[in-house]
Write a structure and sequence with these properties.
Helices cover about 65% and strands about 0% of the residues. About 25% of the residues are buried. Helix 2 runs antiparallel to helix 5 and helix 3 packs antiparallel against helix 4. It is elongated, with a radius of gyration of 20 Å. By secondary structure, it is mainly α.
Length: about 170
């Protein structure tokens, strides 16, 4: 079995080249970085009482009001402004769940899709006014999630463990 849990052409004693081995592990650093970052971002928001307020310095409500007129999708900001605290909790819990799912590799593609959607919504609202566009940090996060949406977490993950277990029971 190879690192993806598939039967490959490598038999006992055969070795992969360094280039082949690097290809197998290529997405692991990205997965760890995004997972840790989103867990940290979610916990940071959940433990910041100022952020989870409708108004006041550093609150989600003030941030949303500040970006409303410069966002690409003002209707999305208006939706968040209907319940800023609820939106703040949704973002924080979403980031936490996406980060944990990515780190553990459980439903990894779904977790990565969640991360991409959070990054897309933040790019279209909070980071949209950044000029030039590449100064906004949410667009690179969106692009970083896409390889994990496509590939999942085939290595060191609950998904790989469960897939191997299903194959053994067949």
């Amino acid at each position: 079995m190879n690192a993806y849990g598939e039967r490959g052409s490598y038999g006992r004693g055969e070795r992969r080249t360094l280039k082949e081995q690097a290809g197998v592990y290529a997405l692991l650093p990205l997965r760890i970085f995004l997972g840790v970052t989103f867990v940290y971002a979610g916990l940071d928001k959940l433990t910041d009482s100022a952020f989870l307020s409708a108004s006041g310095n550093g609150s989600i409500g003030e941030m949303m009001r500040g970006v409303r007129d410069s966002s690409a999708v003002p209707a999305l900001v208006d939706l968040a402004l209907k319940s800023p605290e609820g939106f703040g909790y949704a973002i924080a819990i979403g980031e936490l769940l996406v980060g944990l799912g990515t780190l553990v590799g459980l439903w990894a593609r779904l977790a990565a899709l969640g991360g991409a959607l959070i990054s897309l919504s933040l790019w279209l609202t909070v980071s949209w006014q950044a000029t030039p566009y590449y100064y906004g940090n949410d667009l690179p996060y969106l692009m970083a999630w896409l390889p994990l949406v496509l590939a999942g977490a085939p290595l060191f993950s609950a998904d790989a463990f469960l897939a191997a277990r299903r194959r053994r029971s067949m």
